[in-house]
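User: I'm new to structure prediction. If I give you an amino acid sequence, what do you actually give back? Let's try with this one:
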Amino acid sequence: MTMGVVDRKNVSKLVNFRHDLHRNPELSGREKNTADRIVKFMKDYKPDHIITGIGGNGCAFVYKGKQKGPVVVFRADMDALPIREKSELNYSSKKENVAHMCGHDGHMVTLAGVGVYLCKQRPQKGTIILLYQPSEETGQGAKRIIKDELFKNYAPDYIFSFHNIPGYEKNEIVLKKGNFSAASVGMSIKLQGISSHAAHPEKGISPVVLISEIIDKFETLNNYDEKNFRFGTIVGVNVGEKSFGTMPEKGVLHATLRARTDKNLDKMKNIIKEFVDKKARKRELEYKIEWKEEFKSIKNSVKAYKILKKAIQNKKLKYTKRQYSFRWSEDFGEYSKYFDSCFFGLGIGENAKNLHNPYYFFPDEIIETGIAIYISILKQLKLI
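Assistant: Good question. You get back a string of structure tokens that encode the predicted 3D arrangement of the chain. For your 384 residues, that looks like this:
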């Protein structure tokens, strides 16, 4: 780390703090101990206000300037994944089947580094909020934060966040105008028919054929063109049991629908709903569709994007402009519905393991670059 925004002693503290968070991951909605660790760490860096319990297990640290000015929020996600870590790190997860395999520990510590800086360089004007958000992986955290009265008291003029991204050089910043990442939603289609003896299938109503037709329907809808993608991924199917004498009566299909824009995702949802309704009625099957873990697409505002880009250029940091939206989702899209916001990527290595991989690794070397970007944004807005 050579950015120089934080002294060597505090850089070492930040790295140790990340390793501590990495050892002690918590799943979405269960981040209470994570929040406690963050609060304990951040108290040493003298925020003007500490907010706990925001959006559930979230917390926030407020640094206020003496003069009026914009409210700027930097946001980090807190939750880990239900994955068994397979690394051989000396600070690997202590919890079985729970691990920070998406780098949220690194995001949290990057934000803490901004607090380290602001402790000595207090803002001259405006309000700076370091927001730790729970439940990103399930798409619930941002929604709860926005609805929370504690957050409404600090409605931001600007909100920024980032995600570490494999496939790019370490410390390379990834920018994208407009839509940064996809909208997505989980879908479960539950079908109920009537079982019968396997010798007389015509006397029952099986869900098997309809499930097959739904899978075929997806193939007709799927469009993987990077310019305007829209597709469904079947993630699970369950029909019947290993009972050779009985035709099944129940079936369930699980899929993720994904599209470049919220509008295209809604269109796809409606097409599938209408198809299932029509076919289920024809086959006299009862059905229920459940929607889970919905993510809005991230839409970077023109105003916030310009601020971020200028801040990066001022620091002479290496960046690349991405032509097409990422196909993964992130619940930061909820903020972009209401506020001037901008999301960016930070490379962790061209050959780095993918996110959600049991061998995934977050490099400590990128932490200070993330801090430097946030600090440069504050300088660009003349808050410090």
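You can read the tokens as a compact description of the fold. Here is one thing that stands out. The mean pLDDT is 97.
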